[in-house]
Each structure stands twice: as structure tokens, then as C-alpha cells.
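Re: that chain you flagged

S.,

Sorry for the slow reply, it's been a week of failed gels. I finally had a moment to sit down with the sequence you sent. For the record, here it is as I used it:
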Amino acid sequence: MKRKSKTKAKASPRHLNDRDTQHAVEQFLYRQAALLDEKRWADWIELFADDGVYWMPPEPSHTTWEGMPAIFAEDKNLMNVRMGRVMHPDAWSQRPLWGTNHVVSNVMIEKESPNGDVVARSRFHMLELRRDDVRHFAGRYTHHLRKTKDGYRIRLQRVDMTNAQAAYDYVLQVWV
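Prediction finished late last night. Pasting the C-alpha cells below so you have them in one place:
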């Protein structure tokens, strides 16, 4: 009969690092969702690297936003323009009471570079309430994250909506 060892097997340093990265990326994505739901758009835009892009293609087969139609394809400058338009006191589309609720889940680290940059995929569901109208948006996020001394910054956030081709009464005003 074999005698059982009373010492527990230690996780390898690489395995611990994987869990640390997983946790850090999850917390980053949850914070991003909270900033959107709290309408803290300036703080949300600051999560992007200076060369960061927010991209929502009309269908998952698209591989670039250059020269192609896109629901969104915005750098930080265009994000700031959108934020200014949405926050303007005369923005009629923002007058009715409205809000969003994002749920982010199934976060998977696809790739981690030696410098700490990460590619992560996750699933999302966003509920938007405007007056008495509720809309649902769901799909997959792909984040290309740059590791900096201040934490992660988004180089690319790709949003593949499951229902991107659905008919809507009005266009998206803010980010999903």
C-alpha cells in the first residue's frame, strides 16, 4: 500500500501567473462594463491606448475596418467626438430616461506575450432601456490589451454582435 504524502503539490510559477493574468483581465473587463453603465465615458475612453480602436463589424467574417462598412470603427479622437455629441445639452436622443446594463462572462485568455500584452475573448449581454423600450445586444468581445505600468490599455476592442443585422427603431448612440 502506498503512503499518501501530506504535502500538497505546489502550482508551477507559470500556472500562478496564468491565474493572475486571468483575474487581472477579468477585473479590467468588469471595470470597463461598469464605466459604460455609469455613463463615465471619458474614463472609459481613457482605457484605450493612444492608438486604440473600438471596432464593431457588421458581421464576424470581416477582418479589417479599413475600406469596409462598420457599425463602429473609432479611434480615441472619434470616441471623444461621439462623447461630446451624446453629452451635448441639445442632444435630443439623450433626453428620454435611458440606461444600460452590461454583463461580461466566459473570459478566456487566448494569448499572452512575454511583454505582458494579452489577447482575450469574452461574451457579453447588454440591456438598454430607453423610456419603456428594452433592447438586448449580445455577442463576443475580442480585446487586444497592452500591458503598461498603469495597467492594461486597449489596443483593439472588437465587438461581434450576434444580432448586428437585426432591425432597430433607432441607431446605437453609445458603445456596446
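What I noticed first: The chain has one domain: 13-161.

Talk soon,
D.
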